[in-house]
Amino acid sequence: MKPDPRLHAYREDLADAALRGKVDALRFVQPELRQISVSIATVHAEPRMDSHTVTEALLGEQVNVLEVKDGWAFVQLLMDSYVGYLPARCLTNQVMDTTHRIAVPSTLLYVKPDIRSNPVQHVYMNSFVSAIKVEGDFARLRDHRFVWLKHLMPVGEYWDDPATVAEAFVNAPYLWGGKSVAGLDCSGLVQLAWQACGFDCPRDADMMQDGFGKPLKRDRGLKLTRNDLVFWKGHVGMMLDGVNLVHSNGYHMQAVVEPLSGAIGRIANLYGQVTGVSRVPEMYKPETNSEAAQ
Fold it and tell me: pTM, whole model, 2 decimals?
């Protein structure tokens, strides 16, 4: 079986050198490290603007670039290994070490450390920035812009409850492939919530069901708890308690909280019945995985 092309950078004509011997390609290349320089970079399935969005990359994320052609970069995101195409203008080769993550759904970058100054850019949760100095209530960034200090978390510090993070995105618009408060899909909401809490969460619902968390045996005695994940074919939501589900969906065209029972009845007409339920233990945090590998 070939490696999943969503998570492995290869085509018939080009592949990451790390995949030599695992896939067939006319040419193998050593990828070059780049960094996202815009608030949100849309990652497409094909190198054209009318190709559908597969995911998004946020400010400060690092990517491996295999090819730049006709203004498009063929990339693999380092955060979750997702592969796709994004406009090359969204990248910089001036890769900076990052010190902090944006820890709120969205915030603003300013030209001065003054809330009355003109904001120049919206940035979103799980974006990365490089702070060099504290000036009053602001952090000065390496690019000489400023961000409200309380909206940052040092790299390596996290929120402690994914469901709390997900609830902060209620009413955010539904957007296929999105993963910010400006617009997100079902798996984008779940991924960003778990990433904000320090977990290595994959991008798509099927990836989560197959490899994130431990499947729970579904029987009449099963009691769902906060942060449990509920799966349908092509859809995922997160439990807030034993009754209510938070999920971004195309029916409401936004992220909502609703009783799981109501969602099951409605979604059955679109995606069929629930295909699985998972619970995520601490073992899925990156630092725990690293320790286990040593």
Answer: 0.94
